[in-house]
Amino acid sequence: MQRFEAGETVQIGSRRSLAKALGYDDQDIFDDPKFAATVLGFFDDLRAIQQKQVDDQHADQTRLPAQLVSSGEEAIRFAQGNDAALFDISPDLNRETKEIAATFADYVRDVGELDDLSAASSLTFANELDDMLKALKAEGAIVYTAKHDRKFVGENWPDKTPMSMTLGYLVVVPTTKKLEHLYVPRKTKLF
Predict the structure, then answer these.
(1) CA angle in degrees (0–180, nearest 5) for 71-77-83
(2) Residue 75 Ramachandran class (φ > 0 left, ψ -120 to 50 alpha, else beta)
């Protein structure tokens, strides 16, 4: 049973015994591709229902796919690929880890404000960010990012043509918190 639950290979005799124990007339039901597709569809539907429940808890927020930052180069690409960035450090981290996270966030913000990085500068910054990521990991923290393309129109702008911007979101959380998505404010004001 444990092998079956873990998705490991189960011998045909064991599959038939399990089918019989679960009350299936067809002892080869677990070998039927249509049955497998139905079961997989059921789990997909269940995940969609669970995701909707989580989304409903964040009605004033937008769900974005989260990307784990595993290198300084990825952090540089994030920094250079946004028009603006917002940073968040989990309150669940200890003081020393928060200090490292704040230094990392400030560094990423500073790199994002630079234009025309030379290859040598980019490599130097990436190496320094790598060291900070290693320090965060040693302290039990990891970094995730997400991006959101937005259009803004100011209430008092004479020209109501929307201004397009890419907003970047960077969060530092405990390594025990695995994120697939970031929830970010649905409405954002420029000023």
Answers:
(1) 140
(2) alpha
From the CB of residue 171, how many other CB atoms can be counted at a distance below 10 Å? Answer: 22
Q: Which of 66, 55, 135 is nearest to 102 (CA)?
A: 135
pLDDT, tens digit (0-9, with 9 covering 90-100), for 34-87: 877 776 776 777 776 766 776 677 778 788 999 999 999 999 999 999 988 889
Q: Are 125 and 117 in contact (CB under 8 A)?
A: yes
Whether this model's pTM surpasses 0.85: no
Per-residue pLDDT, averaged over 4-20, amounts to 74
Q: How confident is the model at residue 188 (pLDDT cuts 50, 70, 90)?
A: low
Count the residues in the chain.
Answer: 191
Who's near 120: CB < 8 A, 6+ residues apart?
Answer: none
Question: Among candidates 14, 40, 37, which has minimal Cα distance to 27?
Answer: 14
Burial of 174 (0-12, 13-18, 19+ CB in 10 A): middle
